[in-house]
Design brief:
Elements lengths: L11 H4 L15 H18 L3 H5 L4 H14 L18 H11 L3 H14 L1 H6 L2 H13 L4 E4 L15 E4 L5 E12 L6 E8 L3 E8 L5 E3 L13 E12 L3 E2 L5 H35 L5 E2 L2 E2 L4 H33 L8 H11 L1 H25 L10 H9 L9 H17 L5 H13 L15 H24 L13 H37 L1 H29 L4 H14 L7 H15 L5
This protein binds flavin-adenine dinucleotide.
Flavin-adenine dinucleotide (FAD) binds next to strand 1, strand 3 and helix 14.
Length: 609
């Protein structure tokens, strides 16, 4: 457990009372970070958005992508994370988060660029040796070479470590000979360098840096996709491909470290990146709904309550993901700043920091992608029939956003990871979940115990109490699931069937808890910094997010507990009585709050905090 002055540990929000320590919020972004984000936005508005047709359709796609990435490289947009000694800018995660969301205005380019700077470049940065970093990073930082990440195979998607691609050492010991095929590789059509995963001697899962020009490497045709049509997705075939032994990345048999480590980062980047698109869709919808654009019944459609409700819901959900994203970026950046840059294992330590916060990264990926889906779906609805017509960008975005729930680990796999990681940390003593649950279960039964005692909130105490209610319900549900399934849960097939139903419900509760805690903390900080009046909209957004979060948790708790009780009425009643002790809804006029949020969006024609 963390105290006021310690940095919270990964997933600490489940174990600790609502966070009192300040968190990183986007309002704290440095001028440099904001300037960099603005440069990214201007680049996309100038070089990408006016030329979408070149990316989307036909033969020009690869050429357009290469040209765009070279220009992005010339502008310094590809070098933000690469340390200065390898030709980059070495900026922290809060700044790169700002850049990621600002460039995310057109799905295809977002995927291309974030693939290159993220899962393309970062394996080498975090897990490559000095030779590999010197050889590749300076070229990747400038865009001279472009990168891709090749893990998925035809029969191994979610079960990625089951890869069948083989690597065998050549007789002279100078090369590994790779055979196999990777599918669905983003940037495949033009990447110069691939991180490829293969099993040495069919057994030891290992990472290799493979250049397109190596003998035996060939690239397949472009996939015809439902969305992100302007991005490149191909197979990469390895037929007796000769990879120099110097290009083994990390140790033989330890490829899982980079394969999974890089996905933590990729998930974080995806979740925060899609917020850029979601904010754009709020602005586009508000502009369309306003007076001059669209009138029905002689009134602008922005005057109708159901349209206003949509705008408010879009904003409250974006506020939640934005708050979680920057909070996590701040936590990771702070942890990285405490590492010794001169230590030979520095880059690997950075990857370990991401691993510490992998629960947060998965949450951001899931809620980010699902929020983007919600926002874009509602944006289409605001546009009515026109939203279904390709001329309007909402139609394209509707197709483009769909992939976000599938790649970087499907949302099912990410949900599975949440309780599974907590379970692992609980069993290894890293997180004292069970002792805390046992204590809580005792207090819940004690009618005289005040479950909310000791909550110290100078601002927004009712919202803090709601967060605590959700934390207690989540802890209770998690502990009960473990207690009732202690034997089965340790068997590998627990998550087949019913066990996975339980895990999904727990995951949804954990996700809402982190979202609620993040929005309330941000709103508290804005009240403290700017006063009640100026922070009123942030408080409204946080209140709506909390109300919706409480509803989700309440519903998931009830369904989960009926399953755990196996339908036993007495047990169900016991869990319901426990919920009645823990549940708390702050009194609020949810409809009035939404109306005030919507009024601001309609007036300013954009997402407003
Ligand atoms: C456009 C695009 C770009 C991509 N880019 C890349 C890339 O650059 N590099 C790369 O390596 N890969 C890439 N991928 C692959 C992508 O990561 C995989 O498609 C994804 O991981 C899912 O694997 P799969 O398609 O085999 O689905 P499957 O694993 O077969 O899953 C099918 C369904 O079953 C569910 N499922 C699977 N296992 C479980 C479980 N244990 N519990 C519950 N549900 C489960 C899944 O969530 C999904 O709903 C890309 C894919 C696409 C479409």
């Amino acid at each position: 457990m963390s105290n006021q002055h310690e940095r919270p540990k990964g997933a600490g929000f489940i174990l600790d009372k609502p966070c009192q320590k300040d968190i990183f919020i986007p309002e704290l972004l440095s001028e440099d970070a904001l300037a960099f984000g603005q440069a990214g936005l201007e680049f996309v508005e100038r070089e990408i958005l006016p030329h979408v047709e070149k990316f989307e359709w036909g033969e020009t796609k690869i050429k357009a992508n290469i040209e765009a990435m070279k220009k992005a490289g010339d502008q310094g947009l590809l070098m933000v994370e690469v340390p200065e000694e390898y030709g980059g800018l070495g900026m922290g995660l809060t700044a790169t988060t700002c850049l990621s969301e600002k460039v995310a205005q057109y799905g295809s380019f977002t995927v291309t660029m974030l693939c290159h700077t993220g899962i393309g470049t970062l394996p080498i940065l975090f897990f490559g040796n000095e030779y590999q970093k010197q050889r590749y990073l300076p070229k990747l930082a400038t865009g001279e070479w472009l990168a891709a990440y090749a893990l998925t195979e035809a029969n191994h998607g979610s079960d990625a470590l089951g890869a069948k691609t083989r690597a065998v050492l050549s007789e002279d010991g100078k090369h590994y000979i790779l055979n196999g095929e990777k599918i669905f590789i983003t940037n495949g059509g033009f990447a110069d360098v691939f991180t490829v995963y293969a099993k040495v001697d069919g057994q030891h899962f290992t990472a290799f840096i493979v250049e397109k020009s190596f003998p035996g490497v060939s690239i397949g045709a472009e996939e015809h996709k439902m969305g992100i049509k302007g991005s490149s997705t191909t197979t990469i075939r390895l037929e007796d491909a000769l990879v120099p032994v110097e290009n083994v990345m990390g140790e033989i048999g330890e490829g899982h470290k980079s394969a999974l480590g890089v996905l933590d980062i990729g998930r974080f980047k995806l979740g925060v990146g899609v917020m850029g698109m979601a904010k754009r869709m709020i602005a586009v919808s508000a502009a369309y709904a306003n007076e001059n654009e669209r009138q029905q019944f002689k009134k602008p459609i922005s005057s109708f309550g159901m349209i206003r409700r949509k705008l408010a819901d879009m904003a409250a959900k974006v506020f939640a993901v934005e708050s979680m994203g920057y909070r996590t970026a701040g936590l990771i950046e702070e942890a990285v700043e405490h590492l010794d840059k001169n230590d030979a294992g520095y880059a690997t330590q950075v990857a370990k920091v991401f691993e510490e916060y992998n629960v947060e990264c998965s949450i951001i990926k899931v809620l980010g992608s699902e929020t983007a889906a919600f926002v874009i779906d509602e944006a289409v609805q605001v546009h009515g029939g026109y939203g279904f017509i390709e001329e309007y960008e909402v139609a394209r975005n509707y197709r483009d956003e769909r992939i976000n729930r599938i790649f970087e680990g499907t949302n099912e796999i990410n949900r599975l990871l949440l309780p599974a990681t907590l379970l692992k940390r609980s069993m290894t003593g890293r997180a004292p979940v069970m002792p805390m649950y046992m204590k809580l279960a005792g207090r819940v039964k004690d009618a005289g115990a005040d479950l909310f005692e000791g909550l110290d909130a100078p601002f927004l105490p009712d919202l803090v109490k709601m967060v605590e209610a959700v934390r207690l319900m989540t802890l209770y549900a998690f502990g009960t699931t473990l207690r009732k399934n202690m034997v089965q849960i340790q068997k590998p097939d627990f998550v087949m069937g019913k066990g996975e139903y339980f895990f999904e419900k727990l995951a949804n509760m954990i996700i809402q808890l982190f979202a609620m805690e993040s929005v309330v903390k941000r709103a508290q900080m804005l009240v403290a910094r700017n006063g009640q009046e100026k922070a009123a909209n942030a408080v409204s957004l946080a209140s709506v997010a909390c109300y919706d979060g409480m509803n989700v948790v309440d519903c998931e708790y009830r369904t989960l507990m009926t399953g755990i009780a196996g339908g036993n009425p007495a047990e169900i009643a016991e869990h319901e009585a426990a919920a009645a002790r823990m549940r708390y809804y702050a009194p609020m006029d949810v409809i009035g709050l939404k109306e005030s949020i919507a009024a601001l969006i309609v007036d300013r024609q954009r997402y407003v905090v």
